[in-house]
TrEMBL record:
This is Tryptophan--tRNA ligase. It comes from the Bacteria. Pfam families: tRNA-synt_1b (PF00579). The keyword Aminoacyl-tRNA synthetase applies. Keywords: Aminoacyl-tRNA synthetase, ATP-binding, Ligase, Nucleotide-binding, Protein biosynthesis. GO terms for cellular component: cytosol. InterPro entries: aa-tRNA-synth_Ic, Rossmann-like_a/b/a_fold, Trp-tRNA-ligase, Trp-tRNA_synthetase. The lineage of its organism: Bacteria, Bacillati, Mycoplasmatota, Mollicutes, Candidatus Hepatoplasmataceae. One of its GO terms (molecular function) is tryptophan-tRNA ligase activity. GO terms for biological process: tryptophanyl-tRNA aminoacylation. Belongs to the class-I aminoacyl-tRNA synthetase family. It is an enzyme of class 6 (ligase).
Amino acid sequence: MEKKRLFSGLTSTGRLTLGNYIGSLSKLLKLQEDKNNEVIIFIANLHALTIPITKAELLRNVKENLKLYIAIGIDPKKTKIYLQSQIEKVNELFYILSTMTTIGQLERMTQYKDKATKQANSTFKIPTGILFYPILMAADIILFNPDYVIVGNDQKQHLEFTRDLILKLNNNYDTDIKLVEAKIADLKEGAKIMALKNPKQKMSKSDQNKDNTIYLLDDLLEVKRKILGALTDSENKIYYDLEKKAGVSNLLVIYSTIKNISLKKAEQEFKNLTDYRKFKEIVADQVCNLLAKIQKNYHNLNDDKLIEILNYNLKYLKKEANKNLDKIKDKIGLIL
Ligand code: TRP
């Protein structure tokens, strides 16, 4: 049977959180174990240029993220991993796709509108890179002609945009690019990881209140302190109810996903416990065990190892990208 190609891009901005781990990264770990999958992921360092960033910050983010992906268990022998700027052909496809897109289409993108309104009352002017963000994303994808793209809910619109471009290419130029489908990485039934002090809101890496967010590289004593300080309720019963018990439910989701058991099973474990402090300590232990492992792996990786990892599949990936781009260029009439 032919393998299904799964593709995903990870933005290289900011530090990764427990929410990122549970919500999406841990999914990649499962997917790479399936022999029927070919998993390709990349770090979107070109997309990272759409907000002002220094060379030092950019390099630090990319290295930190790459190290974390490896530290959590992404295995370069099972998952092909590259840096967006390593595959230069993406820029050529980006240009071609830009000729098939209208400015109006781009201006209607939710992410663009959000970013544009946020910038509107500051002196910062919106770079065209932000407007063109979805075209580069489409180019990332179309260059590798995958069966599935793994994205969070917030990227669904960009994926629809990509699918429209694929249909246009196939119709106008008679290419045979696969109509890629989304695999949404977010957890089901509202089981997103929420902010510890404000469990009605998503855990975010850019939260002003640092007690809301657990970063994968946080000091473990800090992690414990944050979990013990999580907002709960006064019922002193531990069960899952997103509406009435958002804080307790959040801790249950964290506990059950790290332990790889169902929510039901987790509820059963705590059926007779009425002490929230004890409950939080047990959850904190579970989280700290996970983070201790990740952090140990993380600190064992050096820059040389990272370069080795980035070169591991580069030849193959470049060949795939060249082949797909040449097919498109040929159909369009760019190759004599
Ligand atoms: N925009 C994606 C995000 O913020 C990252 C990304 C860039 C991506 N190019 C992609 C994801 C291609 C999937 C496929 O998460």
